[in-house]
Amino acid sequence: MAIELPPLPYDRAALEPHMSAETLDFHYGKHHKTYVDNANKMIEGTEFADMPLVDIIRRSQGALFNNVAQVWNHTFFWNCMKPNGGGEPTGKLADAINLAFGDFATFKEEFAKTCIGTFGSGWGWLVQRPDGSLALVSTSNANTPIAGEDTPLLTCDVWEHAYYIDYRNARPKFVEAFWNLVNWDFVASNMK
């Protein structure tokens, strides 16, 4: 089964002014597509050829892991955003955030610190632990919570290719803009 580049859940200009169509042309159209293309070349004719993507992630290592994990991470990232997103979560998700962090403002501050403080290239995550509690996780490079026991709820891509066109080297400005795009319905739908 070939790994496919899923369509974006919105038009490539739909996240402007927070994320430009040019950024999506490169980030989705070049970087994400390259991970898909590389992964397909690597699994062809191997034991991984007919496995679902998550199974390949959990059983692979090295270059194959890096490419398949980046396919999954990016697909998840696109869904964490939507046009006219942002605001604050409600319901069960809001309750869980308040329980874990005290209030939304503290969560937002701590999530931003996690993203900004990720050394080099990587990802900031809000995850749900197996016991149901929420936590923040920073992963380097292609690492992803789905390789372990945590359930990803929200991610922010802090590889430079996520923000260099719109924000140059200003990761904090990118993370600040990200809050205007968060798709809280998608985040809540990931809770167990």
UniProtKB/TrEMBL annotation:
Entry-linked InterPro entries: Mn/Fe_SOD, Mn/Fe_SOD_BS, Mn/Fe_SOD_C, Mn/Fe_SOD_N, Mn/Fe_SOD_N_sf, SOD_C_sf
The family assignment reads:
Belongs to the iron/manganese superoxide dismutase family.
Using the record's annotation, list all stretches that form the Manganese/iron superoxide dismutase N-terminal domain: 4-82
Q: Which Enzyme Commission number(s) are on file for it?
A: 1.15.1.1
Q: What name has this protein been given in UniProt?
A: Superoxide dismutase
Which residue windows are transmembrane per the record? none
Q: Which organism is it from?
A: Cognatilysobacter xinjiangensis
Q: Which residues form the Manganese/iron superoxide dismutase C-terminal domain?
A: 89-189
Q: Which UniProt keywords apply?
A: Metal-binding, Oxidoreductase
The source's domain of life comes to: Bacteria
Please name the PANTHER family in this protein's record.
SUPEROXIDE DISMUTASE (PTHR42769), SUPEROXIDE DISMUTASE [FE] 2, CHLOROPLASTIC (PTHR42769:SF3)
Protein role: Destroys radicals which are normally produced within the cells and which are toxic to biological systems.
Reactions accelerated catalytically: 2 superoxide + 2 H(+) = H2O2 + O2
